[in-house]
Task: structure prediction
Amino acid sequence: MESAVSNTQPTAAAGIELESEDGVVRVEPLPDDRWRISVHPTQGVHIHKDLWVSRYPLGLIREIHATKGLYVCDEIMREENPRYVEHYLRHEMLSYVEPAAFRGKRILDFGCGAGASSVVLARLLPECEVVGVELEERLLRIARLRAKHFGLHRARFLRSPSGDALPESLGSFDFVLFSAVFEHLLPSERRTVLPLVWSHLNPGGILFLNQTPYRYSPVEIHTTSGLPLINYLPDRVTLGIVSRFSRRHSGQVSWERLLRAGIRGGTVSEILGILRQHGHPVLLEPRAEVGDRIDLWYGGLSARHRWLKRGIWAGLKVTKAASGRVITPSLALAIRSAIEPSCARPQPRIA
Result:
């Protein structure tokens, strides 16, 4: 089997095949320096995003495949498709804070992965310094190659020495992005990592925590592709149901693996409860023209099954009117640090 990096350049004119244990990725040249990338998994392997046309250079495509395997289309789309990461960041950050407020500020993109979110932030907010932090060096390599490809001089990437520590001399930030991260932390990690990141936020700074599924949604779609009611069942029972009925996780899957995949989501009370032990978090509301957090959730949805989503929106509004509780199927929060500069702050572990 030939590795993704060892394919020779002369084959590029006719296209190349990148092989892995789970299938083959075909990369075919198109006009205007574009590439058609198609994923062909082996039988029984499910890949949600299996086709994309990209302007990435061939070398970068091959590097991404070497790191992400059959998820190469998904990873490239995260940055190139404006309806993917860019849509969420634009909608879920700028609905709380005007773009002008970011000018000249520092943004920490915690858990930046292969850098798609950091690159998008640097493009949306070009006058900001964006610092991406990630634990895995293999993902940081892709992030740095992306930044180099786009010539992003105000975006840099640092490796965390461990899962409960941040890079030395990281400094403080005006904004912190905690995007699609919280749900993947184990319960004990949530109580450690979230305060650690919070400790690097300037007084009056804002933590954006988004793309996290609501812990008690009637249907679990993030990890199991739509199993109903399992969010209300005991862990052991949930594990058995997922092992038996989920297309994504079949057979002898462990509970820790499911937790790491994000099966239990999060709640506003859980997040604020953790932060209150380390400061004075203030939950913000979206800008007036956006509405409340229910409107924010609804406004970010696609037009597919609009009638159903409209019905859910109406039900959530009724729940708010009757109980005062704001519930959304996914969390998109902005939390301001109200700690005074003179107050003592927890000291982060620096490795």
Summary: The radius of gyration is 21 Å. The chain has three domains: 9-79, 85-213+267-297+305-337, 216-264.
